[in-house]
Fold these 2 entries.
Entry 1:
Amino acid sequence: MDILIINAGSSSLKYQLIDMEHEQVKAKGLAERIGIDGSNLKHKPTGKDDVYIEKPMKTHSEAMMLVLAALTDKDHGVISDMKEIQAVGHRVLHGGAEFSGSVVIDDEVLAAVRRNIPLGPLHNPANLMGIEACIKTMPGTPQVAVFDTAFHQTMPRKAYLYGIPYEYYEKYKIRKYGFHGTSHRYISKAVAKAMGRDASELKIITCHLGNGGSLAAVQYGKCVDTTMGLTPLEGILMGTRSGDIDPTAVEYLMNNEGLSVGEVINMLNKQSGLLGVSGVSSDMRDIDAAIREGNERAKAAYEIFVYRIIKYIGAFAAAMNGVDAIVFTAGIGENNPAMRSEILEGVSFLGVKTDEKANNTKGDSVLISTADSRVKAYVIATNEELTIARDTLELIS
């Protein structure tokens, strides 16, 4: 059975076609600059040459038509007919408090995604466009929504409520939601499997460290806390996001810089983090290079990044009254052994020691702690698309 995975952005549409019988990717690609001059499709069929198609795509529906044409093309396609696609799984950012799991999309689900646009103003409208494009171009094909926030809905209220008047939670559902849930769910299960245990027996801290980053405390298979909040702005320092900050800093910047609320929030989301502190880049590889050249601001950005991760690991270990495993994933988490070693050294009091040889080994799942470590540490490659595909298959079955 072939399942198509869609991750739609405001001007992009990322996709993977997965053969679920063998859980293998048959093709993947990215339609970019939708509605903008220079729109194009990068199509990567497994076992065949990559294809680059430059063609106007005014809407996401036109982009979907081009994707389906690429998938069924006689030369670079991987299926003979679009009817071979049994279902479509969509990544949706914000499900609010309404969804604690993935769901088959119907009119009610579409309405709920729209209602949650104020909570995910950048992503939810784009996700909707992707869903509506697929419904239009693939009528009758089951569509499934997999929410970034769903995994975190098991958090107890002491973890998700903010210390503001309760009426604002009741009226506007202002609370911690958390994100990267699909990744945290996949990784917590994968590390349990690597340990030969069931996730329901373990206390795990998952560290999804990319340009956007978050940690989650997963106790006995359920998320009990996470670093991101009402929006993805809360938590650790990120590529361009500030992470945790005193809310009165917003008023202070407005008064002293003559900025609006929107301008300050935009700055905290897009001009802060590694980029804002270092003045160099939002990419950790550029930060590392600048540090080697003696750039003190780049070093400060790196130190804040590492420190906040160490602090949250300690906090989550306390929240769960112990931890069995710490796992790193995503772009930075999977590819920066020196940083992993420094983070683990910072939480060595928990009983974890880095095996430096293993830590410098590449692989989809690598144990990087020593044999005598009381707490195990792993690097595991995340696979959000496969998680979405598995949910989709389960729901349509």
Entry 2:
Amino acid sequence: MKSWIDALARTRAVISGGIRGLFRAGSARGREEKDKLEEALVSADVPLWLIQQILAEPNVKQSSLPLRSVVEQTLIDAFSKKTSFAWESAVKPMVILVVGVNGSGKTTTAAKLAWLAKQQGLTPILAAADTYRAAATEQIKKWAAIVDCDVVSGGEGADSAAVSFDAVKAAISRKADVVIIDTAGRMHTNKPLMDELGKICRSVGKSLPGAPHETLLVLDGTLGNNAVTQAKLFSECIALTGVVITKLDGSAKAGFIPAVNKELGLPVVFVGLGEEAGDLTVFDPAEFVKGLMGPE
């Protein structure tokens, strides 16, 4: 699995490139230094409210205290919504609905979630409910071969709610532990497709009362603060339980992640640190901040 340090190299370069000297013990902390720190954090898409909070910290002004420690702790404390995901539900199978816009990495995320489930000793089933994109079903079948799990699909143009219903019923009959439903990419402004998500939820609820147990929004980490705007609009249309951030290894704007937590009131549950099956990991605020700041 790719490490946090490696995955966040691009964002770390943006943050530390011009301010590395500020973290040295006893370094000056005047207006010019604070301006440099602010500029670096803005460049990495750290939200403005958090930048203001960092700069307002009394200890930022005291050169006797490590500035690095002040910045790190303030970033960690920004994550008020802790990760609460658990691979369990009151009844089996656990049903996870994966949603998001086109190109965010939903299909890959669904497959990697199946891989994580297997690492927990569980039996997952993937549901190919993205029936609009021609290559989506083939893509998820290829991933399923890598992960070594079953797929329920209905072919291009099939009813996605019916595919989801069938996947849950199949999981019940096969005594599988988890169903992960990959849905089509959609914008919040596309009412028919947003209505379809509601239909999928009702359909799986009929096949298994209480399902879906988790509805995870997948966000492209390379979008920075634009992903937060996207997520706010999406969350107004469907009840979400958590967020997955993908493509962090390709992003220079990973500083936006605290905004997802605070401004959406949702936990960041998983993050994608690379392209391999094992590169989806549980989000850890301390590891995230360590990756942003780099080795001391």
